[in-house]
Amino acid sequence: MKTSNFTLLILLFFQVFRLTAQEKDILIGGEQLKYRIHLGFINAAEANIRSSSNLGSIRQIPTRKIEIEGKTLGIFNVFSPLLDVWVSHIDPSTLLPVKAEMNKREGRYRKQEVVDFYHDKGIAQISSPQNSPKDKNLAISNSMLDLISGYYFLRKKNLQDLEIGQKMSAKILVDGQVYEIWCVVKGFEKVESKFGTKNCIRTSLVLPKNNLFQDKDAIRLWISQDNYQIPFKMEVNLKIGFLSIDLEDYKIAGKTIYTALP
After folding, report:
1. How many CB atoms lie within 10 A of CB 117?
2. What is the CA 91 to chain-centroid distance, rounded?
3. How confident is the model at residue 13, as a pLDDT?
């Protein structure tokens, strides 16, 4: 499996953990979020999240389509072009994925994959023209998440009920492999942004030992402390440099939710 640093960062940003607190109805139709990914003042990439306005249906299961797109910008798009697209069709009643699609274009590398989740049977059917064999079945738990559904499990919970030091974890299926991610609640802080000062919940993400991140507290994620509970800001201390991800725009059904300061 080939997973770029950018792909891993997007994975971490939008799939963090499953929580145990009061649940919320958060799978909103017509939602659009845009993020800026930058090294200091240099824009490196952007990421967009879009949810369909209307429900669809797969195998007679009602679903809402969610799409995440990440792409490089400027000089990064010249020397290391990347366009990654993830799509998830989620059951609104359970927030479990019914079908997930991935399309990676990273330099000369290409990867397409489709995963059909059968939670009642404990099976994920994975199909990719780049895999050998092309089709395979993978045994999964009946609550296995994909990249995008994990993001909504996070937003579904009342994060303000959490205590500092509380730890959580989850397993997700991405690119044919299961990842486990841990999260530690670090505190409640005010974050300065283009939208003014925002109350946020700060967390730290912990991964198994790897050669990408500088230290155990290298990934810091701030989640908005409001009814929307969206990833508001992220800072990553890589061995190759310091990277930031900031919210640029947030709309629901075309209506601006956070207004930028003049």
Report:
1. 26
2. 17
3. 57
